[in-house]
Design goal:
Length: 423
């Protein structure tokens, strides 16, 4: 099945809101054999909405819209598309009563008059229930089988309704799951290795034997490798992807840390909890970013005990017992200082692992010997201290992101090495 997606909202065109719904829908649709052939973004005007939907119907006969179903004056999606189908609008008493009950239960007040607009439905439309918000979705179809599915733009509601209502309905229209021909992908995540180096390590692979396409996707977190298979049954897709993933993993074991959307901080926290170890962080240039990454993981309190933001040298000396002689001889951004910071924070908090970051995030502060992006990372695992210097790229924010990621990678390697030696 070929479909088009129309995202609606002035905020999308102005760049104040990122359209995550379009990317999410494309991934979910491909997984069940639905091909998104065109994506369009339009403003809130009725004429713009109608023009985009009309063009999509002429090309594919199937259009999904995201946004414009709210209660305010700029929510014109329903009326614009109803007019396109030659339909009027009618008040749905069932939806109105549901809205009243929702407001009474959640906010102990009467439904605002503006929200009555959400109960106005195109004549002859099918309601797509919204179990995640107030605005119902709408399915509108003409006598020739051309259809438009209208969903709310709020990402949580859009995604929930997609899974609850729209994708199952579309699968039925394609003849059910038994005949699906899908597009599926699998992503392997690496960090600490450049894209060109990954390509060199995979040079010996027989691409034809993979049975999939292979894409390199570099970013601040590392290099993702996306394997994709097209136009096969779900079972064959899974078989091909698993076989291809095994081939790709083999030469990259040292740098692989996860799959899909898995976050390195989550992997590290899992490794710490599995081994019964605790950790504390000492951060200079990242200013708490490493601690934030770790505390974003549910259950972080089982392993993360605390941290020190030691931005000023006096704090490094006072709180982390970094020697003044070390700072004078080697500077705050040095492997020597990183080692002492890691050891200091491990001792201070009485944990198994201490990790430190000190660097020059820029845009100023660099020297020929230590340019902007120079970062030193230390890890103390049970008294065994190691440190490394790296030079990262990007603006101030990206240098800090890459530094936190590199520190997490170093902790994970230390944990794996210790467990391997113990095993």
């Amino acid at each position: 099945m070929d479909v088009e997606l129309v995202s609606i909202g002035d905020e999308l065109l102005l760049g104040f809101t990122i359209d995550t719904n379009a990317a999410y829908f494309a991934r979910q649709a491909a997984a069940v054999g639905i091909r998104v052939v065109r994506r369009a973004t339009v403003g809130d005007g009725a004429e713009e909405i109608a023009a985009a939907v009309r063009a999509g119907l002429e090309r594919t006969g199937a259009v999904i819209t995201s946004g414009g179903l709210g209660p305010t004056a700029d929510d014109l999606t329903k009326a614009a598309i109803a007019a396109l189908f030659g339909r009027g609008m009618t008040l749905d008493e069932g939806i109105l009563e549901s809205l009243r009950a929702r407001w009474k239960a959640r906010w102990s007040r009467e439904l605002p008059e503006a929200n009555r607009a959400q109960a106005m439905i195109p004549e002859g439309a099918t309601i797509l229930p919204n179990g995640h918000g107030s605005a119902p979705g709408i399915w509108l179809e003409d006598a020739s089988g051309r259809w438009v599915a209208m969903l709310p733009g709020v990402p949580r509601e859009f995604r929930g309704m997609l899974a609850d209502n729209l994708l199952p309905r579309m699968i039925v229209r394609m003849g059910g799951e038994s005949g699906l021909r899908v597009i599926r992908s699998r992503t392997l995540r690496t960090t600490g290795i450049a894209e060109s180096a990954v390509a060199d390590l995979l040079q010996g692979l027989d691409r034809a034997s993979l049975g999939t396409s292979l894409a390199f996707l570099p970013g601040w977190e590392g290099v993702d490798l996306r394997l994709t298979v097209r136009n096969v049954s779900p079972e064959e897709a899974d078989t091909r992807l698993e076989a291809a993933a095994a081939q790709v993993r083999a030469p990259l074991t040292e740098w692989l840390y996860g799959e899909g959307d898995e976050d390195l901080a989550e992997v590290v926290m899992h490794a710490l909890r599995e081994s019964g170890r605790t950790v504390a962080v000492a951060e200079s240039c990242t200013g708490g970013m490493l601690g934030m990454r770790l505390t974003a993981v549910s259950g972080a309190s089982h392993a993360l005990m605390g941290g020190v933001i030691a931005y000023d040298n006096a704090v490094k000396v006072r709180e982390l017992v970094v020697q003044e002689s070390t700072l004078a001889e080697h500077g705050a951004v040095s492997v020597e200082t990183a080692r002492e910071m890691a050891a200091g924070v491990r001792t201070k908090f009485g944990v198994d692992v201490g990790v430190s970051i000190t660097g020059i995030a820029g845009p100023g502060g660099g020297t020929p010997e230590k340019p902007v992006g120079t970062v030193c990372i230390g890890v103390d695992l049970g008294g065994a201290v190691s440190a490394q210097r790296i030079v990262t790229i990007g603006d101030r924010h990206e240098v800090r992101q890459r530094s936190a990621q590199a520190a997490l990678a170093k902790v994970l390697r230390a944990l794996k090495s210790a467990d391997s030696a113990a095993g």
